[in-house]
Amino acid sequence: MSIELDSYGIMEGINEVIVTTKSIDDRPNAAPIGLIRHCGRLTVRVFNESHTCTNIKDTGLLAVNIVDDPVVFVQSALEDLDKEKFEFIETGTGINFPVLASSNGWVIFKAGIKEGNIATIAELQFITGNIKSMGIRPVNRGFNAVIEAAIYATRYKVFNDETFLFKIKSYKDVINKCGGRSEKEAYSLINKLL
């Protein structure tokens, strides 16, 4: 599996991706997740009360979407995406599964579940994938700051702790200095949706 993961840009450590899932009644869901690759294992950790967790338990599947659009990260973190943002892929399991139409690539995994008190860990096994475009892109500190701010925004929504609002605001200067139009739009959207 390591060669396949490398070709999708999934490297050792935590890879920020957007996971798509599907409910029993065919509603697609998208949420940013840290995809953990460590010592030959690939896992995700999802909060038990989330739609993502329920959907993974119900279908046993999830799709990892490789995305470089900061606005899509923020939208998927803080609101439900319109159904038009998804396309459905035949997985070979008899289930048509949602992936993001705007992704640079996606991988569909079978998820082995280990439930915990607060979160569930899913160990992933490769089923199928598609690389749509994987051009080179230098690191943009503004993009990275948007991702960090979006993570804190999701934690604020879950825990309602104002410490997270302070952390979100701490990224404003980096985004304004280093980010482009998309990063600035994404940061503005975080503030609007909170």
Nutshell version of this structure?
The protein is of the alpha+beta class. The protein contains 7 helices and 8 strands, in the order H-E-E-E-H-E-H-E-E-E-E-H-H-H-H.
Descriptive report:
The chain has 194 residues and is α+β, with helices and mostly antiparallel strands. It folds into two domains: 2-67 and 81-131, Electron Transport, Fmn-binding Protein, Chain A (Pnp Oxidase, Chain A, Roll), CATH 2.30.110; 141-193, Hypothetical membrane protein ta0354_69_121 (Methane Monooxygenase Hydroxylase, Chain G, domain 1, Up-down Bundle). 36% of the residues lie in helices and 35% in strands. The chain is built from seven helices and eight strands. The chain has helices at 2-7, 51-59, 70-78, 141-159, 163-169, 172-178, 181-193, and strands spanning 13-22, 28-38, 41-47, 61-66, 86-90, 96-100, 105-115, 119-131. The protein has a six-stranded antiparallel barrel. Strands 5-6 form a two-stranded antiparallel ribbon. Strand 5 and strand 6 (96-100) form a beta hairpin. It is globular, with a radius of gyration of 16 Å. The N and C termini lie far apart (39 Å). 37% of the residues are buried.
